[in-house]
Design goal:
Length: 443
């Protein structure tokens, strides 16, 4: 009988931010066959993200390639560590939610960026050009996810063909399969035009709407979901951005670009005022899990670990969780069937309508397989409505936040209470969280 494959989900302790990773292993091999990362940032201190990037390298035995890097959106506390990550790792595919230039500028102004000399301004104005700068030349593909307006990918119940399990592996990682779309508007074409020079080896593509990403050699799937709020952006603001487009994207005339940014910041203040939450409405959800029909059996196991620097009450809770995870839950049928993970970034599930749209896109069968759920926006009340936890019903609900930053109040008490029966776990500046699972006997 062959040994099972293994998979791991890691949440690193970065405080107010998010840095998560997943990997797939052949049993007996030190390095993972496939590695993905979801977000890489914090606002609690640069040392936290640097420590976690170093820990990731140790965890994967100094493997130097990330097969799939996903950025949910462009808030500082989700992307502040990306440049450091790209200095340490090559990337097979970098996946981003597609946002129009107007949407990117809204995020920039909300993040107190948008100044000509601000490094992040370059990213917001043209993420492709920024990511393909010399220091980030190790990206093989940039993949944009357009708004998820249609139904999601079919949830096929039959087993999928897969390659020989004894196939050879190299540090180039496993290949992914997906369908791409051709861009049909000026902004998308502009993003792709950055590859016009022959020395660029990075491709820019757009994922076909309603499709998934398959790691066929591991019978595994990724499904991104982009809930787009473009309808909430006033036409007048969009028009002003289009008028200034040429000046904004001109790297040669900094004076014209500075004036354009000034004009658009005034238009932003006029339309949105203070405290806009538009930026968090643009956040890429990501479902990741095995293609269940390709495996005869599967199970999830928890790896809880406490720390002496955690508050006493939380150490006690974690001890109880450790007993549950290691002695009770392994005999629970749910642990043998819910092996998928659902990341939400700072996404909104603040109404039944938004929750229903997510379920419709992902498919009920997949949502029922969700064992680990990353709670939206660090547990903010504005991104939630009562009943979200019961609808998703995960085995573990992960809150990645710095609860001692009183001004943020993350996680909010009502959100924590809603998710408490569903394995609420806190990831802070000192305590991370990991689960791993097993996949048995491919069809």
């Amino acid at each position: 009988m062959s040994l099972p494959d293994q998979f791991f989900y890691h949440f690193f302790p970065v405080g107010q931010g998010l840095f998560a990773a997943g990997l797939m292993h052949r049993t007996g091999e030190e390095r993972p066959r496939f590695l993905w990362v979801y977000d890489c940032g914090t606002s609690s201190g640069k040392h936290l993200i640097e420590r976690s990037i170093s820990n990731l390298g140790e965890c994967i035995k100094n493997r130097k390639r990330i097969d799939l890097l996903v950025l949910s959106h462009f808030d500082h506390d989700h992307i502040s560590g990306v440049c450091s990550l790209l200095q340490e790792f090559k990337v097979g595919t970098l996946m981003l939610p597609y946002m129009s230039l107007a949407q990117r500028l809204i995020v920039a102004f909300e993040e107190d960026s948008g100044e000509p000399d601000d490094q992040l301004t370059e990213f917001y104005l043209n993420p492709v050009a920024y990511l393909l700068s010399n220091k980030n030349e190790g990206i093989e593909r940039i993949l944009f996810v357009s708004p998820s307006d249609n139904d999601g990918p079919d949830d096929n119940d039959g087993p999928r063909h897969r390659n020989d399990p004894q196939e050879s592996r190299s540090d180039n990682g496993a290949e992914i399969d997906f369908e791409s779309d051709r861009p049909n508007d000026e902004d998308k074409i502009g993003l792709m035009s950055q590859l016009s020079s022959p020395e660029n080896k990075t491709s820019v593509e757009f994922l076909k709407q309603g499709s998934s990403i398959i790691v066929r050699s591991h019978s595994w799937e990724f499904i991104p979901y982009n809930d787009d709020p473009k309808k909430l952006i006033p036409d007048d603001f969009e028009h002003k951005v289009n008028v200034e487009r040429a000046n904004l994207l001109s790297a040669n005339d900094r004076g014209a670009r500075k004036e354009a940014l000034k004009n658009l910041k005034q238009a932003y203040d006029q339309h949105f005022g203070s405290g806009s939450e538009e930026r968090n409405l643009i956040s890429l959800f990501l479902y990741s899990g095995p293609i269940y029909s390709s495996w005869k059996d599967y199970s999830l196991v928890c790896d809880c670990s406490g720390t002496l620097r955690s508050p006493l009450w939380w150490s006690y809770v974690r001890s109880v969780k450790w007993l549950y995870c290691n002695f009770i839950a392994p005999r629970d049928d749910k642990m043998r069937s819910r092996c998928s993970i659902l990341y939400s970034g700072d996404g909104y599930l603040d109404s039944k309508d938004r929750l229903q749209k997510l379920f419709q896109y992902m498919g009920g069968r997949r949502m029922q397989k969700t064992g680990v759920f990353q709670v939206m926006h660090h547990g903010a009340e504005t991104n939630w409505h009562k009943g979200v936890a019961a609808a998703i019903a995960p085995l573990f609900s992960v809150f990645s936040s710095d609860p001692f930053r009183r001004n943020l109040k993350h996680p909010h008490a009502a959100v924590l209470q809603d998710f408490w029966p569903y394995g609420a776990v806190r990831v802070d500046k000192e305590v991370g969280f990991s689960v791993h699972g097993f996949l048995y006997s491919r069809y």
